[in-house]
Amino acid sequence: MTFLIAAVVLVGVLCVFDLLLTFAVLRRLREHTAELALLAGQSRFAPYNPGVLVGRTLPQTDTDGVDRPQLVAFFDVNCDACHEHAPQFAVAARTYAAMAVVSGGGPRADDLLEAVGGVASVITAERADSLVKAVGIEAFPTFLRVGPDGTIVEAQTELSALAEMAPAR
User: Fold this and answer.
1) pTM of the complete model
2) How many CB atoms lie within 10 A of CB 31?
3) Per-residue pLDDT reduced to its tens digit, 37-94
4) How many CB atoms lie within 10 A of CB 85?
5) What domain of life does the UniProt record list for this protein's source (predicted)?
6) What is the DSSP annotation of 115-132?
7) Domain ranges (residues) in the chain
8) What is the CATH class of 50-165?
């Protein structure tokens, strides 16, 4: 009889432990459901505001023929949007003193260089990467309108969003 009472008490304790464990799991699931509801509808990436670059100074460059470009584009070879915007930038570069900074290498870099190289000064390779870091570029493509003193006046991720500039002399 003692053995039977001990077995019933043991089963009872195990049932209470299981019940407490089940309540803890349910509570945790409710917390996760609430967190998922908060995340619903949010984009995976935080939006990038290139306007944070305004007021910074573009480092002095010594590219061919352009000491202080009015229009600067930052491209990355792995960025499909960069390849789409490069011809539009090339058209604008015929009017303004322009510089393109192409980050990355390989055959896709050759495509970007071909698109913009004839009409804009181009910075590539390690110099491009150091300029990207120095300016604080976080998204590609990024287009900058630069004042005569090298201060970034406007920054956009769409070239068409830049305000009209005075043509180069």
Assistant:
1) 0.69
2) 9
3) 877 766 666 677 888 899 988 887 766 555 678 899 999 999 999 999 999 999 999 9
4) 22
5) Bacteria
6) HHTTTSEEE-HHHHHHHH
7) 1-45, 50-165
8) alpha beta
